[in-house]
Amino acid sequence: MTDELSERGQIEATAKRLVKLREALGYKSAAAFAREIGMEAAAYRKYERAEVKRIQFVVIGKIKQETQATADWLLWGDDRFLPTHLYKLLITGADSAD
How much is the pTM? Predict the structure, then answer.
């Protein structure tokens, strides 16, 4: 199993959180979510599939701006500062936004 503290482990854990966030917000496809955050679908899918070598902060910024997810949660899984409504969505699931 990959150690989440390693660079590869961090990328894989972030990829899982991205999928969880997208699904909690009700987006059925990575392409729909990518459009929402202003990214090309193919580029965004690489993040969800952990097919990137490094996580670009501009991508985290776009996701943060559009979803209110914190960089701490996206990168490290620290949910202490997530907005309450988003925390609840991530824990319980969400209605479809797509």
Answer: 0.87
